[in-house]
Design brief:
Length: 225
């Protein structure tokens, strides 16, 4: 896939959704950090159901630390791995309170030093809360990047590095959201919904589902054969 094709992909994704955003609910960098930390192996919908209750009683590091591990557990027990997540969230809140003045740090190094916060979580917070041009690669983005040929790689770090390198600067800030939403609702794991895909003619996937592809999309697709 060349530069012009990548540019066209993001031009179309932007046209369809000019102001993409995460589906996690939050109202501050701390709430975002907490929600992303809780989202591993869980759906955004499930996390939102839990955090609505949790944030109603504690939405700062100090308040959440005062709940204690067991108190946090009571609000997030509907989420998978809730015990370990509660422990990590509590420890993170204590560090934010004691070492960062209750504020979420804006550097990767400081974020990744927090319990339960890895590279992907740090990238999400840096991008979504602080507007930094980072790329958080989850299973959806990894799949879309490899399947379409946008940024193929053997592991998430390789895909992340290629996306940051290949995506035109004008799109990099919102690229994470466009790709994750595309993977979640269109380029799905078991059966990609190629008939409604806006970038089907640019995609290099050789097993496209061709049934009922819109005429204008099919025309563009044929032009590439």
């Amino acid at each position: 896939m060349n530069k012009a094709e990548r540019t066209e992909i993001f031009t179309r994704l932007r046209a369809a959704n000019p102001h993409p955003k995460t589906e996690l609910e939050y109202s501050s960098p701390f709430e975002l950090l907490a929600a992303v930390l809780l989202s591993a192996q869980a759906t955004d919908k499930g996390v939102n159901l839990a955090t609505r209750k949790l944030f109603a009683v504690a939405n700062t590091p100090q308040a959440m630390a005062e709940l204690g591990i067991e108190g946090i557990e009571q609000h997030i027990k509907t989420i998978g791995l809730f015990r370990s997540k509660a422990r990590h969230l509590y420890q993170t809140c204590c560090l934010l309170r004691d070492q960062h003045g209750g504020e979420v740090p804006q550097t990767r190094e400081a974020l990744e030093a927090l319990p339960g916060v890895g590279r992907k979580t740090a990238n999400v917070v840096l991008n979504t809360a602080f507007g930094q041009p980072t790329m958080a690669v989850d299973t959806h983005i990894f799949r879309v990047s490899n399947r379409t040929g946008l940024a193929p790689g053997k592991n998430v770090l390789e895909v992340e590095q290629k996306l940051v390198k290949y995506i035109p600067p004008e799109f990099i800030l919102h690229a994470h959201h466009w790709l994750i939403l595309h993977g979640r609702y269109v380029c799905k794991a078991r059966k990609p919904d190629c008939p409604v895909c806006s970038i089907v003619d640019l995609c290099e996937f050789n097993k496209k589902t061709a049934k009922e592809i819109p005429a204008h999309v099919f025309f563009h697709y044929c032009q590439t054969l």
